[in-house]
Amino acid sequence: LPANYKPDILSASVTAGNGVHLHWNGNANAASYHLYRGREANAMVPLVGITDTAYDDADVNASLNSWYYYVEATDSCGTVLKGATAKTICLRAQDHSSLSRCLVWNDYEGWNAGVNSYSLEKAEDKGFYPLSSTPYTSSLDDDSREDIRSDSVCYRVIAHEQGGPAQSFSNRLCLSYPPVLWIPDDFSDRK
Question: Fewer beta carbons within 10 angstroms: which end of the chain, N or C?
């Protein structure tokens, strides 16, 4: 393996089933890749050894917490090179009421240059659409009840790599709207 090669994870995205899809930069001289996973960056355990440069981890629930991953590449001579550690994005709601939701998430980790921005997206009938873009890890969504077409709303966050094309997706977070009862307060006798 070239000394300047690192099997860095290009993206660690949460899937629709709340697993994690990972892919990393490969090298033609690598005989195999070993993927490590953990709830903490300093407590990683071996997950799988493969020859592909992508893996779907279906044995986690990434809607409950973030997961850390890194890859080691091994060549036919036994040389082992370790890539940077990546951390998935876990999206949560804090203090949500019937008309507003404070959405928070952790920083995505793993890109050498870091994250340029986060896009918050909201789901409607035809899929997700952009709601806001921010360099921060929280956002507020205020809704008018007149715009509500269902009894729930779903969100996701996309991290965008600084100076690069890579993206990483958070879990899908769906929140229910509490029922609203409108009570008339003006009665008039119309003839």
Answer: C
pLDDT digits (tens, 9 = 90+) for 33-70: 999 999 999 999 999 999 999 999 999 999 999 999 99
Count Cα atoms within 13 angstroms, Cβ side, for 87. 16
45-50 vs 30-38, strand pairing mode:
antiparallel
Helix, strand or coil for residue 68?
A: strand
pTM: 0.86
Q: Which of 88, 70, 69, 59 is nearest to 172 (CA)?
A: 88
Can you tell me the distance from the alpha carbon of 172 to that of 157, in angstroms, rounded to the nearest whole number? 8
Contact (Cβ atoms closer than 8 angstroms) between residue 152 and residue 93: no
